[in-house]
Amino acid sequence: MRSERVMAFLLGALLLAGGCASSSSGKKDAAAPVPEKKLKAAFYVDEGSRSNGVFYWARLLSYSPGIEMTPVDGRDLREGKLKGFDLLVIPGGSSAKQYRSMGEAGAEAVRKFVKEGGSYVGICAGFHCALNRKERIGLLPFEYQVGAGGAQAVLPVEISPRGGEILGIKPGRYRVRYSLGPISKPGAAWEHGKGEVLGVYKGTVSPSGRPGGNFFDAPAVIYGNYGKGKVIATSFHPESHVVNHALAMGCIYAATGLKTAPVFPKKNYRPVRVGFYTPGTIGKGPILRMLELDREPDLDVLFVSGSELNEGILEHLDVFVVPDGMDAAHKSLASGRKEMFARFLDRGGKLLVSGAEAAFFAPHKNFKVIPEGRSFVPEALARP
Q1: What is the DSSP letter of 315?
Q2: Do residues 185 and 284 share a domain?
Q3: Residue 293: inside a domain, yes or no?
């Protein structure tokens, strides 16, 4: 009798255990997948953020899985709109103008954002903004070397083993685009956080209109924390060359922990070739108009500067786009290259100009005025 009671007890326990296991498994199978949360990146595009690099960075951020990019300006910073973002990216251009466009109130908003745990990536001018200097944001204990730097060149940068680990790339030498970037040196320790050098220059160029100075072994990549937030900055342009895109996205990884790479839109085998004029354009509008063009698979977008116009790039384009921006720059563009644009239009090229800048260009059947804020895509795709 006793043995029968023991057997019955064990059998009941096994059945109960089996029932619990079945119930647990059923709940697990029914669980809904956790939705992917995107990294929210604010991209500073106000006065001072200029040059082709701004548009290259807009592409990298916009097309990288896991990132939701939003252009912001100085007013956004001052009005507290960094709240809700994970990352702030400040691209190349002029750090003095960037600081003026955000003002001390905007700079303080950035400091608060990073101090409370936000991430910061600075490129060239954005590197300068991160230095501990009057009328800059000041996020890392590095100081600006007055009179050093200048000119443009492709320079070797040595990424240290520690730098490779933090950036998520192989350490060693990279050849990068340097364009009048700031040269810095480690400064005194301070209360806000620590900084370190992840990469140094292994070459130098003669300064342009400045006193001579050798910045061999000067910091090229700096990294550290400001309060709870992470800060990384490069005084060169990793976005300019495809071969260095891993280095550019490594900055995102170092600051946020997100490992990603851009996935660009597929293009038609013979797309319409669109030149997008970049110098002098400011604000959120040009970035959004560029991305509208770039996402269209039948359009191949190239960023065009004044020097590239002088080198004859119009001969290889179907459409040339001038977004609204700085009137003075576009007036110079129109008045200084009348014959060039006339040849382009006469051979069937299409010129699309937005905003008040249209008044600077001569009338032509292939010249179209696009209202400010309106997409260039329909006219770029339209057949003559």
Answers
A1: G
A2: no
A3: yes
Q: Are residues 356 and 318 in the same domain?
A: yes
Distances (CA, A) of 215 to 154, 209, 353: 14, 16, 42
Tell me how far the alpha carbon of residue 103 is from its chain's centroid: 21
Whether 149 and 287 map to the same domain: the answer is no
Segment 65-86, tens digit of pLDDT:
999 999 999 999 999 999 999 9
Contact 252, 64 (CB under 8 A): yes
Do 64 and 202 belong together in one domain? Answer: yes
Tokens 């908003």 belong to residue: 109
Instruction: Place 327 in a pLDDT band, splitting at 50, 70 and 90.
Output: low
> Of all residues in the chain, what percent are helix, strand and coil, respectively (each to 5)?
40, 25, 40
Tokens (6 digits) for 294: 């770039």
DSSP annotation of 258: -
Predicted local distance difference test score (pLDDT) of residue 334? 84
Domain range for 135 is 39-256
* Contact present, 132 and 143 (Cβ < 8 Å): yes
- Which of 126, 129, 378, 345 minimizes the C-alpha distance to 272? 378
Distance CA 381, CA 362 (A): 22
Choosing from 201, 226, 256, the residue where a domain stops is 256
pLDDT-derived band of residue 169, with 50, 70 and 90 as boundaries? very high
CA atoms within 13 A on the CB side of 218: 23
Q: Is the pLDDT of residue 1 over 70?
A: no
Q: What is the CATH number of the domain that holds 331?
A: 3.40.50.2300
The full DSSP string for 221-242 is EEEEEETTEEEEEESSBTTSSG
* Count of structural domains, the chain: 2
Residue that has been written with the tokens 């060039």 in this structure: 340
